[in-house]
Design brief:
heterodimer; A: 63 residues; mainly alpha; B: mainly alpha; Amino acid/polyamine transporter I; 71% helix; 1% strand; globular; disordered C terminus
Chain lengths: 63, 698
């Protein structure tokens, strides 16, 4: 019973982090290590800047 | 088992709808409406949406989506269906579904409720889902690009111009709503002002001090904003402090205009992005809390099912129930603006085409449910109170005695004492003529929250509700102004390339100033209008939003005609298109040619001009009359322009359909070629939830 509850809570926490973008940099690093190994990844701040620029250059909030 | 659930839903839904139909001339409990709404959304999702995805769109779960094919760890990211649902819902749900149904409650609770349900299930949800599907098949192309590819240059240009104009009207009307909520309310004004330094603080926290720790930053920000609501109460009770935040409408409008301009030119991380984090957390939290509270207290609705104002004499806004209930409630039923989010932004997150039903159709059904909650919040007020809050001084006069006499004379009794006590309870000096929808919604929400979670805090709940509405209205103003700036720069860039560079400061300042001047003008005229401005601007917003939906549905219909196995399938988008064309054209016609000055733009301009010429206006009204006259004429021409643009797009779509029917060549569109998916069907979010729904097994 306990492991199930703990797994469920862990899943929820990961879901909230992903939904809010809190783990976006970690996901980017994983993607970078997989696809562009050998090149240096963006720093945390540079990635954050890039992420915000990308997010706010299109229609992304509505009425 | 699934069939049993479907049958049970149908039976419960039919029972609830029957209950609503039989409750005439007596108060109805809100649970009837909630039950009917939830059953109708679930039935629409389970059967209609499943049929459309399986037969009309032929969604293919084996096909790789652009998020998979072009994954870059930045904007193209295959995302778990529930997380993509959350992103999409947070993007489409703004203040519209709260304000529109509140205003439309002047017709009674029934017309708005029916349109929210039917409009969303057969129109809005279908539009959002089909556009999401089309854009996903086309590498996340925007509505404007798809209109150009699928219809031709006329359709493409119309979509772009329509988008820019609706953005201008939308921002102006939302600015008006927030200004009316803050007018002469030190508590509301100080609370809303406090959100700006909080957003800046969160901005610096997330970029400088703890880059990208969004949850930490947001939690700190939300806590500070809530503290701001309580602090507003202290400000309000302090004789000196309250004068610092007690402003009439014009300086508040200037503040909103200056704020929008700053938000557009500052880097996004400083103000726009952190404010959006705060507003998204508040939005999701409040919507959830409101749903729980409404179910806990399930109030009786005091508003009649249908009021006498169906005849077009309504004080909140002018016009008969047809077509104006369909114009007033755009967001929540059908909102063309959603097509802009469904194309371009969300498709880059879709990990499997089978998720499109949940994300496109499901999110819109949830937004429609938010609209239903707004109807309930408006209809649980005494109708006399509702009209006293929402009727402008231009209609009932600025004296409280005269206002209650007029409103009671309409058959909705209300007294000065009742309004005074309500204002005291809400911590306001007055609630008369607080037009725009936000204050009456906040009173409704405060009653609901107060009854559920403690009545002693009603004034805090009221200002919490105002702050909540203001925060996400200001977010829409920020984001809309920024997108508008890009569009203006895009246009200017065609004239002289350096003006199109978004990283150039002079070009940035010029683009921002032009877009802010455009919406600032409409906001300013709305403020100085003694009839409250909402009467003019909200219908104009509704017409332009629904016309954008017509453009989106025209693009969708053209593609379905070209690709579906049966041409009749195009009716799923052609039927809502025909209905929206009918209501928008009818509304535009009335707004332009009606001889009634309350309704027709030209009639209002001419009536005011003759009053001015005859010297029949007071000095302060005569001073603003020339601006109001110009504005009414401008609005008339704008309405004519919208209508012409929409009919051009419809003609363009008809041309494509006729050529297709005759076997003549049509543009092939821009659908990306098939590639099989390599993703496991469990999605990418890490949650252990089934990713592939049984679309074909209906």
């Amino acid at each position: 019973m306990y492991p199930k509850v703990s797994k469920f809570l862990g899943d929820c926490w990961r879901g909230i982090r992903t939904a809010s973008g809190d783990d976006a940099y970690e996901r980017y690093l994983r993607h970078h290590a997989l696809e562009h190994a050998g090149t240096p990844p963006l720093s945390r701040r540079a990635y954050y800047d890039h992420y915000q620029q990308q997010k706010w250059s299109g229609v992304n909030r509505c009425c | 088992m699934k069939k049993l659930v479907g049958v049970a839903l149908a039976v419960i839904g039919a029972f609830a709808v029957g209950g609503i139909a039989l409750h005439r001339n007596e108060p109805i409990n809100s649970l009837w409406i909630i039950t009917a709404a939830v059953c109708i959304y679930l039935l629409g999702y389970r059967f209609y949406a499943a049929w459309i995805t399986a037969r009309v769109l032929v969604v293919d779960p084996t096909r790789a989506t652009p998020a998979e094919r072009r994954e870059n760890g930045r904007d193209f990211v295959p995302t778990h269906r529930w997380i993509a649902f959350g992103h999409h819902f947070a993007a489409i749900a703004g203040p519209g579904p709260l304000v529109g149904p509140t205003l439309a409650a002047q017709f009674g609770y029934l017309p708005g409720t029916l349109w929210l349900l039917v409009g969303s299930v057969l129109g809005g949800c279908v539009q959002d889902m089909v556009i999401l599907f089309l854009s996903t098949r086309r590498d996340g192309r925007t509505l404007g690009q798809m209109a150009r590819d699928e219809l031709g240059p006329i359709g493409g240009a119309a979509a772009l111009i329509g988008t820019l104009l609706i953005m201008v009207i939308l921002i102006a009307v939302l600015g008006l709503v927030v200004v009316n909520a803050m007018k002469h309310s030190p508590w509301a004004t100080s609370t809303v002002f406090a959100t700006i330094p909080v957003a800046l603080l969160v901005g610096f926290y997330l970029r400088r001090w703890r880059p990208g720790r969004i949850l930490e930053g947001s939690i700190i920000g939300v806590a500070l904003v809530l503290l701001g609501v309580f602090a507003g109460g202290w400000v309000d009770h302090n004789a000196t402090l309250r004068t610092w935040f007690d402003y009439p409408a014009v300086p508040l409008a200037e503040f909103v205009i200056a704020y929008g301009w700053l938000a557009a030119i500052l880097p996004v991380w400083m103000l726009l992005a952190p404010r959006d984090y705060l507003s998204t957390f508040l939005k999701l939290g409040v919507i959830g809390l409101l749903a729980i509270a409404i179910i806990i207290i399930h109030p009786d609705l005091k508003m009649p099912a249908l009021t006498r104002f169906a005849d077009g004499t309504g004080p909140v806004f002018s016009g008969k129930i047809f077509p104006f209930v369909f114009i007033t409630i755009a967001c929540g039923a059908v909102s063309g603006f959603h097509a802009l989010v469904s194309s371009g932004t969300t498709p880059k997150l879709i990990s499997n085409e089978a998720d499109i039903r949940l994300i496109g159709y499901g999110s819109m059904a949830l937004e429609s449910f938010v609209g239903i909650m707004a109807v309930i919040a408006a209809a649980l007020l005494d109708p006399g109170v509702y009209f006293a809050i929402n009727t402008g001084a231009g209609v009932v006069g600025s004296a409280a005695d005269a206002a209650v006499t007029t409103i009671s004379g309409w058959g909705f009794p209300v007294t000065v004492d009742q309004m005074h006590n309500l204002a005291l309870e809400m911590g306001e000096s007055t609630l008369f003529a607080r037009t725009g929808g936000a204050p009456s919604l906040a009173v409704g929400m405060a009653s609901i929250f107060g009854s559920s979670f403690g009545r002693s805090l009603t004034a805090v709940w009221y200002h919490f509700a105002i702050m909540f509405e203001a925060v996400f209205i200001l977010t829409t103003i920020d984001a809309g102004t920024r997108v508008g700036r890009f569009m203006v720069q895009d246009f200017l860039g065609n004239l002289w390339a350096p003006l199109g560079r978004t990283s150039s400061w002079p070009a940035n300042l010029l683009g921002s100033t032009l877009i802010v001047a455009a919406w600032g003008y409409f906001l300013y005229v709305g403020i100085i209008d003694p009839n409250g401005g909402i009467n003019i601007l909200w219908p104009l917003f509704g017409i332009s939003n629904q016309m954008l939906a017509v453009i989106a549905l025209a693009v969708a219909s053209a593609v379905i005609v070209k690709t579906a196995s049966k041409k009749l399938y195009a009716l799923v988008t052609l039927a809502p298109l025909a209905w929206l064309t009918l209501i928008t054209t009818a509304a535009a016609w009335q707004k332009v040619v009606s001889p009634d000055p309350q309704l027709g733009f030209f009639a209002a301009a001419n009536a005011l001009a003759s009053q001015l010429a005859a010297g029949a206006l007071t000095a302060d009204r005569a001073a603003v009359a020339p601006e109001l006259i110009f504005n009414q004429r401008l609005n008339a021409w704008l309405t004519i322009f919208f209508t012409v643009v929409v009919w051009l797009v419809i003609a363009d779509m008809a041309r494509v359909c006729v050529r297709r029917a005759r076997g003549l060549p049509v543009s092939q569109g821009s659908e990306a070629p098939y590639q099989p998916t390599r993703l496991a069907p469990a999605g990418a979010g890490g949650l252990n939830l089934q990713t592939v729904p049984s679309d074909g097994a209906m």
